[in-house]
Here is the input.
Amino acid sequence: MNTQTIENAHTSGVYAKRDLIIVRGEGATLYDDQGNAYIDCVGGQGTANLGHAHPKVVAAISEQAGKIISCPEMFYNDTRAKLLEKLTSLAPQGMERAFLSNSGTEAVEAAFKFARYSTKRTEIIATMRGFHGRSMGALSATWSKKYRTPFEPLIPGIKHVPYNKLERLDAAIDENTAAVILEAVQGEGGVYPGDAEYLLGAQELCKERGALLIMDEIQTGFGRTGKMFAINHYDL
Ligand SMILES: Cc1ncc(COP(=O)(O)O)c(C=O)c1O
Here is the structure.
């Protein structure tokens, strides 16, 4: 059986597929099973920032796989120590710790849990047109009905306000607000950048009222807007 027949028989069916069998990538070029080349405008949906099969990346992954394939955080590990050091050196000053996870949606789940746990408050404020992932907590902060409706009821305590409207955010944040979650550029929502006054204003409001500000950089992080993180454009 060929690839398409096998995938069609066994895939979950969650994703609509293009009629292409991609077998290889090199830099920003993808190749199908017939050897046709394509410019990769998908970039692993944001995960292939460094392109495909860069020799240094291949060597680093191979070397690590040859040493130890996984090391839970119940032990210390030399490679993880270097990763944490590097990550936190790239983050804005004062952010000296990182929680490592496997996907964007998990990072958002973790951020919500850290926010609720550390503030002892329950409410999260998200924005209309925002996208934060598809697991139940992150989905509850995601705006689009097409992602939400089939899985309702979602988790309580999450409300949505219009994006880029500081006065609406101002009216929404109160003593129950654990966190506000924002994208510096709304990606899935249609590529809407936030105004500097809005993002800086949101930061001020959060500081003033004891809420945390979660900047979701899953789509914009690691150089995708020209700086390491989109928040670097605004000095957030
Ligand atoms: C802003 C934002 N947050 C979270 C996610 C979820 O990331 P993942 O698909 O890795 O779970 C995405 C995915 O596109 C995203 O764009």
The chain has nine helices and nine strands. The mean pLDDT is 96. The beta strands are 22-26, 29-32, 37-39, 123-127, 158-161, 177-182, 185-186, 192-193, 212-215. The CA atoms of residues 32 and 47 lie 20 Å apart.
